[in-house]
Amino acid sequence: MSLKVYLFTDLEGVAGVDRWDARDSDRPVDARRCRETRELLMGEVNAAADGAFAGGATAVVLVQGHADSMIYELADERLEIIKGTGYPTWLPELGADSGAAFFVGAHSFCHTPQGTLAHTFNFKKRRQWWLCGREIGELGMLAAYCGAHGVPLALATGDDKLCREARELIPEIETAQVKVGLGIESARHLSRDRAREEVRMAALRAAERAAKGEVPPYQPPGPPYTSRVRTRVRNLHVPRHLPPGDRWVSPYETEHTRQELLELLRCMTDI
Amino acid sequence: MKIYLYTDLEGVAGVDQWDNRASDRPGFVGRRREMCELLMGEVNAAADGAFAGGATGVVLVQGHGDSAVYELADERLEIVKGSGYSTWLPELGAEFAAAFYVGSHAMGGTAGATLAHTFCFEDGRRWWLGDREIGEFGAFAAIAGAHGVPVVLATGDDKLCAEARAFVPEIETAQVKVGIGTNSARHLSMRRAREVVRMAALRATERAARGEVPLYRPPGPPYVARFRSRRRHLCLPRTQQPGERWLSPYEVEFSGDDLLEVLGRLTFFY
Questions:
Q1: Is A216 a member of any domain?
Q2: B99 or A68, which is more confident?
Q3: Which residue in A25, A35, A84 is closest to B183 by CB distance?
Q4: Mean pLDDT across chain A, nearest whole number?
Q5: Which residue of A has its CA nearest to B180?
Q6: B17, A34: Cβ pair inside 8 Å?
Q7: Is the pLDDT of residue A271 over 80?
Q8: Is B213 in contact with B171 (CB distance < 8 Å)?
Q9: Does the first or last residue of chain B, that is N or C, have fewer Cβ atoms within 10 Å of its Cβ?
Q10: Nearest chain A alpha carbon to B23
Q11: Which CATH number fits the domain that encloses residue A32?
């Protein structure tokens, strides 16, 4: 019995992180803080990997979600590590060969009250997504992509708002709550090592439950599948004349309809 | 038994972004150091494998500008580094029994290869030797072959390993990552990558000692090398040498009976 885990990461949901990633800043102080933030991420990633192996996983592929956030040399030696920029798809190498997916360091969707660093893909544009009538964020998007490949999302880690969002979408999911959101840039955090222990134990349970088939792949209602994408600014990157199945709802919002779920999801993440 | 251990940076596990040596950004200074440390880890693994396989001397030759971290080098190595070498492969000669190419990358235009390029990414450079397109690996193998030195080890991503085996089927390769795109890859973890490199270096040295890896010899003489880039080379007709023929402002051919001279011109042409 082999269980391969697709371990996807973001940065904002890691314990200790409550400010936007200043990776584009040229200030030395930001370079230092950026490094510290990345180290905190790697600690939770390794805790999740360790829990997954303890729970029966036979392979774990770590996939960098947040740009330029991996510290390669700190990764657990049992991992394979997908990182870089310009992936051909949002979730490279995701496929039916994975028995379960984990989402470590995730955050709640845009406008979630008191969700630490809550956003959907792009904070500045205040992007929002709806999938088949339900508002989703990056966690919902990952769950839907995984579900389309028949892969259950078995673990989510982040603040209390993210954990609640995950359980509302997938009641059977394991969550590791490493902080309580107080505002967009503040939180009450567990201490570093306690947060990692929470992540490790939740990952262990998640791997065990995935191996027993207790977590269903997320499937939105359909076909046909519909989605809406909204931003607070006019989205100039989208062509004025959309392909069949797409339409403008307002200058800020597009609606998409597809028979194939994966095709629809790509409409949303590729905008 | 002496090994010529030549290096590049782009094929090292953990590296998937261009080395922007000119960048002064505080964030990049740390990243560059990390890349060079990863390189040194694989270099030392290769050297350790070589000594375990019977090598009596290993000379490390820095290929990628300013990438060797001198104080991290295995103490049994001699280290050739610096800038402004007089040839692309300094000190290469018949006293070496075998050559390694650590941290190398696929040739320009290779689909799905991490950091694929031929000498220069920005100008879209491509090389041909005779009818066959070559990258840095092919040029390295041909130059080493002309010195009577077989290339017995190549390390890098899956595309580079396939390229190396296409030129030298008997070569040992260490695949430390799988290319996904130009700037992305699925990497082995650091420790596993080094172990893969060490074991391949050990096998490569043993096979070199038994003479199992032939020299790479392109067909010829005469030899014809072709250079193409996206940049117009307007100044060059003035300095045109015998054996040099311009096919367009973007494309030039070098020909002659001396393979080392032809390849020397190809690899020194900007």
A1: no
A2: B99
A3: A84
A4: 94
A5: A87
A6: no
A7: no
A8: yes
A9: C
A10: A26
A11: 3.40.50.10780
